[in-house]
Amino acid sequence: MTRAKIFITGMAGFLGSHLAERLLAAGHAVSGCDNMLGGYRDNVPTGATFYEADARDFEKMKTLLAGVDVVYHCAAAPHEGLSVFSPNLITEHTYNSTVATVTAAIINKVKRVVFCSSMARYGHQGGEGGVFSEDMAPRPVDPYGVAKYASELFIETMAQAHGIEYVHAIPHNIFGPKQKYDDPYRNVISIITNRMLQGQQPIIYGDGEQKRSFTYIDDAIAPLMKMGFDSRVVGEAINIGPDEE
Fold first, then answer.
1. First-to-final CA distance of the chain
2. How far apart are CA 128 and CA 224, in angstroms?
3. What is the DSSP letter of 166?
4. CA distances (Å), 11 to each of 38, 197, 242, in order?
5. I need a surface site. Which of 208, 213, 214, 227 has the fewest CB within 10 A?
6. Is-contact 151 169, C-beta < 8 A?
7. Could you count the other beta carbons within 10 Å of the beta carbon of residue 102?
8. pLDDT per residue over 72-109, tens digit each?
9. Residue 92 has what DSSP assignment?
10. Verdict on whether the full-model pTM lies above 0.85
11. What pLDDT was estimated at residue 127?
């Protein structure tokens, strides 16, 4: 990889902060923003330029993306279970942030946008094991999944109109250090950890025999970094996740 200027939305969050750390280690110039809806200031790695700004703020994003080569759009309100009760919040911070960020990227002639989508795009497909493949037509079943898939469609439409490159990354159940652990609506591993730290038993639903695949954060970051630069992945939607349950 040649040295590039990278901008990460949601850089104080779990995924964004790890991505920033690895891109800095690879020699890139990294900047980013976060509105602190789900991030922590001390997540931001030393060496990155940080702005406490909202990715929905179109005028601000136009300024912040000047001179940037690649945008990783990680910012969202990833509360899938909450989304049916607070659809406006989820749409504002998931879809509207995409519209503002990608439009600002186009104005600044950014070469590529890597969009961090969600497995929520697939809905209830995949059978009992919940195995998703990229050839499945997206069928979201909640406002969060709808907002993520709508963001993908918006990016594709704008890319075709303006010639910008894009890649949709679809991470599956990421976990690891720096994950937000005080949110009762997402990240089952951190929810269980939080309860155990309080001396409480984890809540197990159903018969306890359910299986699910999880992705350690480092295993998600490696392919994400390639998505910012590899010419072979332009225009693709790519699942990131293990085969093991």
1. 33
2. 28
3. E
4. 10, 26, 24
5. 208
6. no
7. 27
8. 999 999 887 778 898 999 999 999 999 999 999 999 99
9. I
10. yes
11. 61
Q: Is 66 helix (H, G, I), strand (E, B) or coil?
A: coil
Which tokens in the block code for residue 84? Answer: 């049916």
| Cα distances (Å, whole numbers) of residue 180 to 13, 177, 191 | 8, 9, 9
What CA–CA distances, in Å, run from 24 to 21, 80, 143, 172, 201?
5, 31, 34, 24, 39
Q: Where are the alpha helices (DSSP H) in the chain?
A: 14-25, 58-64, 87-91, 97-107, 143-162, 188-197, 217-227
Residue 131: Cβ within 10 Å count: 15
- Residue 162 φ then ψ, to 5°: -120, 0
Per-position DSSP letters for 4-15, written without gaps between them: -EEEEETTTSHH
| Six token digits for residue 71 | 């945008």
CA-based nearest residue to 37, from 15, 63, 17, 12? 12
Closest CA to 155 of 34, 72, 77: 72
Cα(227)–Cα(231) distance, integer angstroms: 8
Which residue reads 């998600």 in tokens?
Answer: 220
Beta pairing partners, 114: 72, 167
- Active site positions, annotated: 144
Helices (H) and strands (E) in the chain, counts: 7, 9
Q: Tokens 């591993």 — which residue?
A: 189
